[in-house]
Specification:
CATH topology of the largest domain: D-Maltodextrin-Binding Protein, domain 2
Strand order of the largest sheet: 2-11-10-12-9-13
Strand content: 15-25%
Largest sheet: 6 strands, mixed
Number of strands: 14
Distance between the termini: 36 Å
CATH architecture of the largest domain: 3-Layer(aba) Sandwich
Structural class: alpha+beta
Number of domains: 2
Order of helices and strands: EEEEEHHEHEHEEEHEHEHEEHHHHHH
Shape: globular
Length: 420
């Protein structure tokens, strides 16, 4: 069950952003948490010289994985006391900060409010990792309050379908890699996306023993993930595609092994899996790289050819957006302000994430992870990436082969008049 996180005290609005430190930021007991040189996609979204996946049929996104005739999520194989399950695979530029005022309560930049949310509680899913620094900073430094927003952070449930929960109105907003929301929105989830927040929080690791020299060596191998619908699974399906590996359930060319994130490094070290895909800058496996037994084979920072796609976007409830796009724009702008502040104040951001208990670790361990992220919030960049990203994602089998990439991109993105 979700728990409210207390709102921060009133922020000191006359202070510059760079002067706000972790010591004087409002502290709340937060939840416990556990520019690429790569080639981009072609105009149609497919990678240059992508090997074909041996003519194998692409699988519809709405395949019932619990159907007896298909791959079942319930038929999980026990792995050596780890309590895991194996499932055959499916695969500062110009910007405006909107201040609340009487003149723009009902109209701003051509956006018209039909039902005001200005004084309503805005429920946002609570941060759960280092990479959610933009949200942590926007909340803890009072940027949402500066925008006149009553934001309350809500803890999500284990394995909760966040896209569905945002669509239902349980949460007003969340964030995540845009690929996570494509299937649900295609299938009718009333969710809209705006404001890519950063790059660089997804990583693919193998043992540093030569067993998996490259992504293309993963054909027929096992990849540990914390969720079949997670950011890492969706993103690295694109890397598998580039390597000529069909990641769809029917193809069975790779096996996703569902493991609790805390146990992923041990599963890799003990050879229960051949690779693990993680999100959010997972500190234990980063330590494994420092210790010499693990190696990063891909990431969405500078190793993957798909690294140009924004990592996390702001997902918004469609009713909220349609009724009050002005308040929605304030929310996204404050969130983006948090991203830019985090990028310009990495040390202070690490201190905030640690002292407010969003990340259960010391600032000195959080800081190196923050340094791997590129904080470059931009709704415009997200919009540009959507159509080619969708066109390529279709080839993974997670969307029907008949999907119209342009139509889905138009359906997914909401233009809130934000010019950054």
């Amino acid at each position: 069950m979700s728990d409210d996180i207390p709102a921060v005290p009133e922020s000191e609005g006359d202070r510059s952003e760079g002067d706000r430190s972790a010591a004087d930021s409002p502290q709340a007991d937060g939840p416990q948490a556990d520019t690429s040189q790569a080639d981009g996609p072609q105009a149609d979204g497919s990678p240059a010289d992508t090997p074909q996946a041996d003519g194998l049929r692409l699988v519809e996104a709405n395949v019932d994985l619990d159907d007896a005739s298909g791959v079942s999520r319930r038929r999980l194989l026990s792995l050596g006391g780890l309590g895991v399950g194996a499932v055959a695979a499916a695969g500062l530029g110009s910007w405006a900060f909107l201040k609340r005022g009487k003149a723009d309560d009902h109209e701003a930049d051509g956006l018209t409010v039909t039902k005001s949310w200005a004084d309503r509680e805005i429920r946002v899913t609570a941060p759960s990792g280092v990479c959610e620094a933009p949200l942590v900073v926007a909340y803890e430094n009072g940027f949402f309050k500066d925008a006149g927003l009553n934001v309350v952070l809500k803890k999500t449930g284990t394995d909760e379908d966040v896209a569905a929960a945002v669509g239902s109105g349980k949460y007003t907003a969340s964030n995540g890699i845009f690929f996570n929301f494509l299937g649900p929105i295609y299938n009718g989830a009333p969710v809209k996306l705006s404001g890519g927040l950063h790059h660089g929080c997804l990583d693919l690791y193998v043992r540093d023993d030569g067993s998996v020299p490259s992504v293309s060596s993963l054909k027929g191998r096992r990849i540990g993930v914390s969720s079949l619908q997670g950011s890492a699974t969706n993103f690295f399906s694109l890397d598998l595609l580039d390597a000529g590996i069909n990641s769809s359930p029917a193809a069975k060319q790779v096996e996703w092994v569902v493991i609790e994130q805390d146990l992923l490094p041990k599963a890799l070290k003990d050879k229960k899996v051949d690779a693990i895909a993680t999100a959010g800058g997972f500190l234990p496996i980063i330590q494994g790289v420092k210790d010499g037994w693990a190696r990063e084979v891909s990431n969405n920072r500078d190793l993957s050819r798909n690294a140009s796609y924004p990592c996390c976007a702001v997902a918004l409830n469609q009713t909220f957006v349609s009724e009050d796009p002005v308040t929605a724009a304030r929310l996204v702008t404050a969130w983006a302000r948090g991203s830019r502040w985090a990028g310009a104040n990495l040390q202070k951001t690490a201190e905030i994430e640690s002292s407010a208990k969003y990340v259960p670790d010391k600032p000195e361990n959080i800081l190196p992870v923050l340094r791997t992220l590129t904080f470059d919030p931009s709704p415009k960049n997200l919009q540009r990436a959507l159509e080619p990203g969708i066109a390529k994602f279709i080839h993974t089998g997670f969307l029907p082969s008949s999907t119209d990439a342009r139509a889905l991109a138009d359906k997914v993105f909401v233009n809130l008049g934000l010019d950054f």
